[in-house]
Amino acid sequence: MPRPALTAALLLALSLSPLLSGPLEAVEPNEILADPAEEARAREISKDIRCLVCRNESIDDSNADLARDLRLLVRERITAGDSDTEVVDYLVDRYGEYVLLKPTATGSNLVLYIAGPLMLVLGLGGAVFYIRGRRAGRDAGSEALSPEEEARLKEILGK
User: Fold this and answer.
1) CA dihedral defined by 38, 43, 49, 53, rounded to 10 degrees?
2) Nearest to residue 95, comparing CAs of 57, 32, 60, 53?
3) Total count of domains within the chain
4) Residue 58: how many CB atoms within 10 A of its CB?
5) Domain membership flag for residue 12
6) Inside any domain, residue 68
7) Which residues have a Cβ under 8 Å from the Cβ of 69 and sit 6 or more positions away?
8) Of 24, 86, 127, 149, which residue has the fewest beta carbons closer than 10 angstroms?
9) Which tens digit of pLDDT belongs to each residue from 17-57?
10) What is the pLDDT of residues 61-108, one digit of tens each?
């Protein structure tokens, strides 16, 4: 096989190899619940819980040992009969609100939700006042010259 053809074949094989692998899931087969409805609930809850090791990755996607423990805990609580909100509240009580991928807009988090838009409005307001002030200063200096000032200017310019 000529060298360019071999190179092209290797590049094609390498580029297609990700398509041949199956989807990778962090949930191991021994974690899956027997009841499909409970398993679906566990997956939905797990998608909104942050892996405390991986940062900004859900426990449903993470392969960390702590994420596995949290997935098992979610499944234990569901099997025990807890509702979705009770499971989430249990995790928040145990690990803090940081465990939620989507923080609630209450308490101290409310400051974070309000501060961004408030700073934007204050910045735009400051920019408007600054621009208006510059225009007013520029317009104030553009008054017509008096006849005496015109005569003095002509004298200075030598006209």
Assistant:
1) 120
2) 53
3) 2
4) 20
5) no
6) yes
7) none
8) 24
9) 766 654 455 666 666 667 788 888 988 999 999 998 887 89
10) 888 889 889 999 999 999 898 899 999 999 999 988 889 888 887 777
Q: Are residues 92 and 118 in the same domain?
A: no
Domain contains 60: yes
Alpha-carbon radius of gyration of the chain: 33
Distance CA 51, CA 118 (A): 31
- Beta-bridge partner residues of 77: none
Measured in residues, the chain has a length of: 159
Across the chain, which distance is largest between two alpha carbons, in Å? 101
Type of residue numbered 152: R
Tell me, letter by letter, the H, E, C secondary structure of 104-149. Answer: CCCCCHHHHHHHHHHHHHHHHHHHHHHHHHHHHHHHHCCCCCCHHH
